[in-house]
Each structure stands twice: as structure tokens, then as C-alpha cells.
Amino acid sequence: MRMTKLARRIKKAREAKGMTRNQLSKEIGVSRAAISQWESGATTDLKARFLFPLAKALEVDPTELYWGTPSIPEQLRLTPLKFVPLLTYDDIGENLEETGEVIPTSADHATFAVKISGDAMSPRFQDGCIVVFDADAEPVSGNCIIAEIDNRMFRQFNQEGGLVSLTALNEKYPTIQCKKSDMKCLGVAVQKIESV
Asked: What is the CATH number of domain 82-193?
């Protein structure tokens, strides 16, 4: 099989970064076999959902990696942009090898994103908007979080002593109160991504 120019550029960028195939596969969330296929030319159609995380991990311009011609100035190559998986409420906390869609974010400590469903948090968070979360953050009063009690929900967190209030921003939904020990925070909202 003839090695393509794209395959050579991927291999050259990985080696220049001093990464093994295993390290690169873990960094972007694909199998080592996928990296081997890209570098051998066995896979010639590199999807955008893999191209951008691959370019970010290798610290190269995605257009230059794919086409061989740079598209942006050097100072923009090392943008603080990172990519997080777009999850459903049910997927949060699961060890997913490949989730599919990724969302670009500049938020520090971003772990995952969720497309919000329903109007409980409107008008601030409309149905269908995408919110980026930090799964490791400890919530403080006023934060919007994904909480798990009996089910998973997106609400504003408030704490007074050992009691927690989970409030919908839409007044037609009731506030839920519980002991802090009865609730699990799955993520604190760190960024809302607006549609244009």
C-alpha cells in the first residue's frame, strides 16, 4: 500500500512531537490501530471530528496537516482551544472510548459538553444550546450544575448548611430541596456556546 502525503505528515508531526502511537491515541481518544491506519495510508478519509483533535495534540495547523499548506499565522497555531466530547445526560461519567461528536472550547478545566434539552433553565439556557462542564469542580451557590438525585437534571445550585436547593430558572418548574449528601454533582457549567 502506498503511503499518502497525509499519512507522511501525520507520522512526521507525531515523531516531531516525540509521541508514541499509544500516547497520541490516548490523548485524542482513538485506538492505537486508528493511528497506525492513518500513518500507513490505510485510511485516507480523515474525518474532521478526528482531524482537529489530532492537529491540536500534535500542535500543528489542521489545514497544514490535512492539505500540506498552512492556513493561519504561527501565533494562532497554539490557541488555547481544546475539544471535549458532546455527551447525553446518560453518558456523563461513563468511560466512553469514542463518543462521536466533539465540541471546541476555550474554557479552562472543561471536561465534557451537553446539548440542553427542555426549557427548565430558560431563558438563560434555551432548549438545544450547548453547555460545557467541569466534572471536577466543587459547586458553589449560584453555579449551574448537572445534578443527580433520582435522575439527572440541569439546575442552579444553592447551598445553605447541609441543605441544597436545585432551582430551575423557568418559574414553572419547582425548586428541589435535598440534603447535600443525597445529591451528586456531575459537572459545573463553565461555558455556554451560542448558536449564530
From this structure: 2.10.109.10
